[in-house]
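Subject: Sanity check before I submit

Could someone independently write out the structure tokens for this chain? I want to compare against mine line by line before I put it in a report. The sequence has 461 residues.
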Amino acid sequence: MKKFLLAILISTLSTFARGQVWYHYFNQYADSGAYLTTVAAITGLPYVLYQDRNDNNRAKVKGFGSFFSMGWLLIDSPLTVAGAADLCFKIPPVGSPWYLHAAFQDSANGNRACHLQYNGISWDTLGASPFVSDSAASNLSLAIDNHGTPYLAYTDLGAGNVAVVKKFDGTSWVTLGAVAASPGEQTNTQLAVDTSGHVYIAYSDLTNGGSISVRTFTDTGWSYVGPPGFSLDTARFIALAISRTGTPIVAFADVSNGYKVVVASFDGTNWSLVGGTEASEGAASEISMVVDSIGMPYVAYRDDGSAAHPSAMSVRKFNGTSWSYAGSRTFTGAPALHPQITLDEVGFLYATYSLDIMPLNGRAYVDQLSYAIAPGFKNIETSGALAAWPNPAHENFELRLGTPVKEPIDIIVADATGRIVWLQHAQSNSDVLLNLKESPGIYCVRVISSSGTSTTRITIE
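---
Independent answer below. Compare away.
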């Protein structure tokens, strides 16, 4: 039903759209001292894991509070007592047990790889301790399979910088394979698990001049996916994702091509360039990638090749034919540290980053990609069994949509310029509080359900 509602949402908004734009999630920043950030989201609610430079670089997680409190709230206590790096953050696929999974390099414990999960009450370990690696580790990458089983890949700094992959077997963390996942020294380790449970890693293969190699694990051990070291030169800032049909897709900065982003997919025999050209217009770093439900990749990166806003964040999407920007290029408007993107299960795209410019240095944002409703909606008449009261009001409105049956709905509120100021999932035939801390004016409320679309206007005094 959620996916169906999203399809209605997109088709409806496209009628009024001026294009896709990025909005700060409810116009708030998550923290003022963040350095490393990474994001996960489920059912329209994002969570952010970050390193807090204002608190001894400890790892913390915040989630967006209820629609009544309207703010970013710390999830339990900090995850570490001292510095954390190489942050990874995942939420299991829908249908598996719900937990927040966090992995990180713990400086207070010899830079070992650690994992914690949040069970809805507190952060807890899997097994007897939080430690996954036996010695110092870097380049951590976390994945969760369809059964909710976590996997963690990392560079083992105590064993010649080989890649190691471990999974939690219900009792302890065990290594996949009798030997390391990479046959030699590597870096930029990335991990992904497909819907059938097949495990993949990608890395800069230092035994092949730093070019990219991809390997997969089967019952017989680790083997290459396509030829080893298949990029023409050194691959940096690697990202790895698997489509729902099981196609591995990699993204990386191609050193021989001015650090432009290259995205390649595997056809069963060879790796081929997605779209036949580079995904970025110029040099890029700190790449992140997701693949949507129909197999189309999105890549996010620090846009080092932008003349207008060097090192600001950009996101590009592939539409099946060519690459284009999701939202505007360099939408952060200032240098962005550690840009990351994620998709929730209904298809909403989120980006997280911290700004690297004074006086906003370290301010962490979670942005959501949405559609802008075109100006001129003031002539829209109320339709459907939709009521808002009191109207006008200063900021609090009660909203109800009456439908033949109780069903999921999406609520969108936009101002006169088309800027979306509220986006919420709810249930029909119940009261919903809109707490709109916005400037006085007329706003359009649109409610979308499987029964249809209803609109009305509200006035903030």
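---
OP: Matches mine. For the report I'm noting this point. Residues 1-18, 372-383 have pLDDT under 50 and may be disordered.
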